[in-house]
Amino acid sequence: MSWANLIFFIVWVIVATAAWAGWSAAPWVPSRSKYRKLFLGKINIQPGQIIYDLGCGTGTVLFEIAKHEPNAKIIGYEISILPYLIAKIKAKSYKNVSVRYGNLFKQDLNDADVIFVFLLTKAYERLSKQFAGKIKDDCLVAFEAWPIPGNEPYQIIREEDILPIFVYKGSQFRK
Ligand SMILES: C[S@@+](CC[C@H](N)C(=O)[O-])C[C@H]1O[C@@H](n2cnc3c(N)ncnc32)[C@H](O)[C@@H]1O
């Protein structure tokens, strides 16, 4: 394969996986630092807990949680190859962060204590079905920006200037 073909192939993979992510659940848009700090101040993450970020992008949420609670186990899933590789490389500096290449809709989340979601609402119906069969009753699921239509949040976290956080318990997905 020539260099030109190789570069074309790499660019194609980056663009195709980014397009797949945008079509599937959301394009890569990182949460703001102010938002991450608010989330961590309100959701009490304990040592030993297992935390997921579904669609982790470059891992900014994962690493903030890891600094806040070094004894939690933090896992991110990502399908867009470029943010995935950036997160994977950065995760080497954190012993408690694992970045996995995979479709967030196909993961087994039954050990989750906290799940973080920042995706478009088009993903919510599929996610709600996924959670209904798979997560613990007391697992906390934090949705950034938009609530789930027809499902009253257990807690709403609001602060000026940033997107709200809608928190649900696992049991709320089994109605
Ligand atoms: C709005 S960004 C949120 C990034 C990160 N969670 C944050 O808050 O900074 C959504 C991420 O989900 C990823 N994504 C979209 N569909 C996905 C899927 N089916 N499986 C895994 N990741 C996906 C996108 O590539 C993107 O990085």
TrEMBL record:
Q: Does the keyword Acyltransferase apply?
A: no
Sequence ranges assigned to domain Methyltransferase in this UniProt record: 48-118
Q: Which residues form a coiled coil?
A: none
Report TM segments.
6-29
Q: Which organism is it from?
A: Candidatus Uhrbacteria bacterium CG_4_9_14_0_2_um_filter_41_50
Query: In the record, what lineage is assigned to the organism producing the protein?
Result: Bacteria, Candidatus Uhriibacteriota
Task: Show the GO MF annotations.
Answer: protein-lysine N-methyltransferase activity
Q: What is this protein called?
A: Methyltransferase domain-containing protein
Q: Does the keyword NADP apply?
A: no
Keywords of the record: Membrane, Methyltransferase, S-adenosyl-L-methionine, Transferase, Transmembrane, Transmembrane helix
Q: Which GO terms describe its biological process?
A: methylation
**Sorted alphabetically, which SUPFAM superfamilies does this protein's record hold?**
S-adenosyl-L-methionine-dependent methyltransferases
